[in-house]
Amino acid sequence: MNPILHRRGGLWPYLALWVPFGGILALLLAASADLAPSTALLVSLPMAAVYAFLCLSSWYVCKATPPRAANYGRMALTLLTAAAIASCLWVLALGTLVNFVSIVKDAAGLPERMPQMVPVVFSLGVLLYLLSAALHYVLLMLDEAAKAELEKAKARELAREAELTALKAQVNPHFLFNSLNSISSLTSHDPAKAREMCTLLADYLRKTLGLSERRSVRLSEEISLAQNYLAVEKVRFGERLRFAGEIDPGVEDCEVPPLLLQPLVENAIKHGASAASGGEVKLRVKKRPGEIEIRIENPFEEGEEAPPGTGLGLRLVAQRIRSFYGARGRMTHQVEPGRFLVELSLPMAEGTH
Amino acid sequence: MERALRVLIADDEPLARALLKEFLSSHPDVEICGEFENGFDAARAALALKPDIVLLDIEMPKLNGFEALELMDPQPAVIFTTAYDQYAVKAFAVHAVDYLLKPFDKGRFDEALKRAARTARSQDGPVVDAPAVAALARSPQKHLTRIAIKDGSQITILPSSRIDYIEAQDDYVRIVSGGKGHMKQQTLASLESALDPARFIRVHRSYIINVEKLTRLEPGTAILICGTEIPVSRAGASRLREILSGRR
Questions:
Q1: Which residues numbered 93-122 in B keep a CB inside 8 Å of some CB on A?
Q2: A99: which of A58, A142, B120, B208 lies 20 to 30 Å off by Cα?
Q3: Cβ(B19)–Cβ(A185) under 8 Å?
């Protein structure tokens, strides 16, 4: 619907805008066809009112021909044609009006002055129609800008939500309670190990404290947290879980979103430890020109409950990488016979935040 | 003196199993008949060992605790042991004797064991609702990705993607995959509701087919890649067409 009609109270200011145009038309008619001012006004004011409504139709033309560099020619042609048609209608309205006024006001000779009035009315008609089109273009663009702003805000909201969900998912109650159960089991037959487990778990919890409030952390912190987590899990699962880490020097200072690796490591352990023969979880961080590559690998048996890659956890990681690095960071995952691997490529450049 | 009760332990963590064994050691009236680190091994062993009581972790590799319980026959008295209480409602819905939240102390464990022993020694034995277990074995809002089938003392885990079609036969369903039929005690309707509706279509009162395995549709008949012809009702045909047109 036309934004002028659509907006409440938009019509009256618009019509008021047409009063001066009515005045201009009266002046032009008085000058070109030598009309008395009162007669000129009697003709021009209804004419302005009629054209005000006719010009509302330019909104449809504007909507159908959005201003794009590629079709300025077509746009001009369309607008001029529409203006000419509208103006012709206006001239027809003039004819009717002039006849009416000549009867009512007994202004003899008014119809005879039509030939002088028609060119004036037609050219003003075209001009005013184009002006109205310009106004509609401005309104359309304002609408679009408002819509784009709204969409942007919505996208920001979604990203924030994803962030929160991702962070909430980190405080994994299974991990905490199972670890406490392991400590409970160790106290009677291996008190020293129980104490070690307490320390490992405390270290891990301390490192995660306050982490979610930070926007970014150094990669070295993230890796140390992952190693800490693996150490706790190693106590729980014993020989069944093996871990191999291979970290290139010089990647420590890269900034990453906090707890980015956590869901990936959790996933890897879940499948790694459940593999029939036990499994090795591999974490490799490689320095490449301009970026770092993080690779997490674990054994995987076909027929596992969660087909890898479809998990919510992985999707959230991908989402966080997108919102943190934009197009410069990416995550891929692949299933190879017997193993599953996730690869992250993150930009190394300064000022990633 | 009554005979000793036989207890089976299923938990994927060695330390958790060690704790259970330690707690059980003070009970002379029970003996441990086996310990297992995944649901599949536990269920298979239970068919042979016929334990009176099962201490069952829920989140385990291969088959979870609910899936393992569904396969056990006769049904033992079950105590679930788990770290997190998201399954409590489910556990009681399948008439678990008790539900221990890790970490638990000896007093709480003894209480649960006493209750389980009473159930196991009672004339009626434990009451476990097998269809309820089957329905609860999968997490809500998640479609069944595998089906565990018991055939005598054999247990088969069938990924649902390998199913060709499913046929209703009285109180059973016959699940056909690669030319082999597997019988399972379940109704076609309950299986239908558990499977991915975008993939498994009820084409007939007695048949569900996997649309991935469909090769041709003729009036009244669906022809599968394996050559089997499945009768299709009128409603089934319209459901099928709807799914197929949505896939393109």
A1: 101-103
A2: A58
A3: yes
Question: Are B63 and B166 in the same domain?
Answer: no
Report how far residue B143's alpha carbon sits from residue B192's, in angstroms, rounded to the nearest whole number.
10
> CA gyration radius for chain B?
21
Q: Which residues of B touch A309 (CB under 8 A)?
A: none
Residue A281 touches chain B, beta carbons under 8 Å: no
**Are residues B124 and B187 part of one domain?**
no
Q: Return all residues near A335 (Cβ < 8 A) that are at least 6 apart.
A: A300, A308, A309
Q: For chain B, list residues with pLDDT below 50.
A: none
Q: What is the pLDDT of residue A165?
A: 62
Burial of B42 (0-12, 13-18, 19+ CB in 10 A): buried
Q: What is the tens place of the pLDDT at every residue in B182-193?
A: 999 888 988 898
Task: Specify the pLDDT at position B19.
Answer: 95
Number of domains forming the structure of chain B: 2
Most B CBs within 10 Å, among A176, A177, A178, to test the B interface: A178
Identify whether residues B32 and B77 lie together within a single domain: yes
What CATH number corresponds to the domain at position B129? 3.40.50.2300
- C-alpha distances in Å from residue B119, one per residue of A150, A294, B33, B123: 62, 53, 18, 8
In a mutational test of the A interface, the residue from B13, B20, B156 whose CB has the highest number of chain A CBs within 10 Å is: B13
For the domain made up of A169-347, give the CATH fold: Heat Shock Protein 90 (3.30.565)
Q: Which of residues 186-225 of A touch B (CB under 8 A)?
A: 186, 188-189
Domain shared by B123 and B147, yes or no:
no
Cα–Cα distance for residue pair A25/A219, rounded to 1 Å: 73
The dihedrals phi and psi of B185, each to the nearest 5 degrees, come to -85, 100
Q: Which of A178, A238, A304 sits opposite B14 (nearest CB)?
A: A238
- Asked if residue B209 and residue B88 are part of one domain, the reply reads no
pLDDT at A111: 77
How far from A28 is each of A31, A119, A126, B221, CA to CA, in Å?
5, 11, 15, 82
**ipTM score over 0.95, yes or no:** no
In 3D space, the residue among B55, B59, B64, B1 whose CA is nearest the CA of residue B33 turns out to be B55
Q: What is the largest CA-CA distance in chain A?
A: 121
**Contact yes or no for B146 and A305 at CB 8 A:** yes
Residues B73 and B173 in one domain: no
Shared domain check, B154 and B112: no
> Domain containing B237 — which CATH number?
2.40.50.1020
Domain ranges of chain A: 3-155, 169-347
Q: Average pLDDT by consecutive 10-residue portion of chain A (353 residues)? A: 72 85 86 82 86 86 77 84 90 86 75 83 90 88 88 79 62 85 94 95 88 83 91 87 88 86 86 70 90 89 54 78 84 84 83 42
Domain that holds residue B203: 143-247
pLDDT score for B127: 62
Same domain, B114 and B217: no
- Domain C-terminal end among B85, B113, B134: B134
CB nearest A303 (choices: B83, B102, B159)? B159
B61 touches A: beta carbon within 8 Å: yes
